Each structure stands twice: as structure tokens, then as C-alpha cells.
């Protein structure tokens, strides 16, 4: 059955299918594995979104329940396995996500496009604020990664490695650009039209 990728083509779909391609799992184990591998850094998960995604994938016949189990007084757990159609979809999604660059219209870049509307001092302060947030995030990620890295192969942490490298590059760029702005190295429009000016 033909199924457009956009119907289930989210990063969370990719994560679920990839984990099930490794071995059958129940949703709680998927959550724990995503946390251990820091997949949550790249996948938006809120409330029951994992269960909603599993339900969609099951209806699309991309995964199937294989067994249910119960441990003591805990709720019953359903173990899911990927189907052949799910493996085909996973290959298609990997091709789309890795092999085809797309403009994802990030908020930060949209904000940069209008930076000239601020006073230089305010623009530089915001860039430094972002750099500080990213530096704290990077430090936190490094500590968490150190705690689990010994037990995991590098290949399952490549997205974290990439994000750490990208954060480092962005922090350098933000701080250097803020310095350039502060020292007049970036030409600026007349200040009377600055919408971010403070009294």
C-alpha cells in the first residue's frame, strides 16, 4: 500500500522505526534508550507523543505488536516489532533525512534577518545571551554523555557528537560577531529606527 512519507515522516517516526529495526521493544524501553542515546536532543517528545506515533505506525502497518507482558503490579506492556513495510519506510526516511538537505526555516536565522532593527548594543547582548545558553547546554550534554558513553558504541551517539560540534561552532560565531558589532566592525543603520531601543 502506497503511503506518502509526510504522513508519518517525523523525526520521532524515524527514531521509533530505527529502534525497532534493532530489535523488538516496548514503548518504555524506547523512551529509556532515546534518553540514554540523547535522541531526545533531536526529537520533540511531549506527553503521549511516543504512544500517538506508535499508534499511527501500527495503523499504517509499519510496526506490529508481538507480545504483551506484565511485571507485578505494573501496567501491561506491549512489545512491538518493525514490519517489512516499516523497514522500507525507514530506508526511505533515512535517504530523505540524511541525503536530501532542506531549508528548515529555523527561528534563529529568521531573527538574524531582522537584527539591524535593534541598536548594536542590544543586538550584541542578544548574541552573547544565546552563546551563554548554548555553552551551558553543551556543558550539560558533555557531562551526560560522559556518564553513558562507555557503554554505547560511537555510531549511536553520532547525532550528539554532531550537535556538540555545531554548538561549538555557533558559540564561536556568536561571540565573534558580538565583538565585531561592539567594535564597529559591522556597519549599522541609523539608530532612530531601532525597534529594540531602550530608554
From TrEMBL:
InterPro entries per the UniProt record, alphabetical: Tscrpt_reg_PadR_N, WH-like_DNA-bd_sf, WH_DNA-bd_sf
Boundaries of every Transcription regulator PadR N-terminal domain copy: 16-91
Transmembrane segments: none
Signal peptide coordinates: none
Pfam families for the chain: PadR
Domain of life per record: Bacteria
Protein name as catalogued: PadR family transcriptional regulator
Amino acid at each position: 500500500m502506497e503511503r506518502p512519507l509526510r504522513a508519518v515522516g517525523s523525526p520521532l517516526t524515524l527514531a521509533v522505526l530505527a529502534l525497532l529495526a534493532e530489535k523488538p521493544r516496548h514503548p518504555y524501553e524506547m523512551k529509556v534508550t532515546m534518553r540514554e542515546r540523547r535522541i531526545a536532543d533531536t526529537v520533540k517528545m511531549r506527553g503521549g507523543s511516543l504512544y500517538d506515533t506508535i499508534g499511527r505506525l501500527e495503523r499504517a502497518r509499519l510496526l506490529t505488536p508481538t507480545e504483551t507482558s506484565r511485571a507485578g503490579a505494573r501496567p501491561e506492556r506491549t512489545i512491538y516489532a518493525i514490519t517489512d513495510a516499516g523497514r522500507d519506510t525507514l530506508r526511505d526516511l533515512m535517504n530523505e533525512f540524511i541525503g536530501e538537505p532542506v531549508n528548515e526555516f529555523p527561528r534563529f536565522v529568521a531573527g538574524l534577518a531582522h537584527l539591524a532593527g535593534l541598536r548594536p548594543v542590544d543586538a550584541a547582548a542578544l548574541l552573547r545571551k544565546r552563546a551563554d545558553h548554548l555553552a551551558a547546554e553543551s556543558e550539560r550534554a558533555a557531562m551526560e554523555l560522559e556518564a553513558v558513553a562507555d557503554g554505547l558504541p560511537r555510531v549511536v551517539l553520532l547525532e550528539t557528537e554532531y550537535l556538540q560540534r555545531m554548538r561549538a561552532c555557533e558559540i564561536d560565531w556568536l561571540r565573534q560577531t558580538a565583538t565585531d558589532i561592539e567594535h564597529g566592525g559591522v556597519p549599522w543603520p541609523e539608530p532612530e529606527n531601532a525597534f529594540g531601543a531602550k530608554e
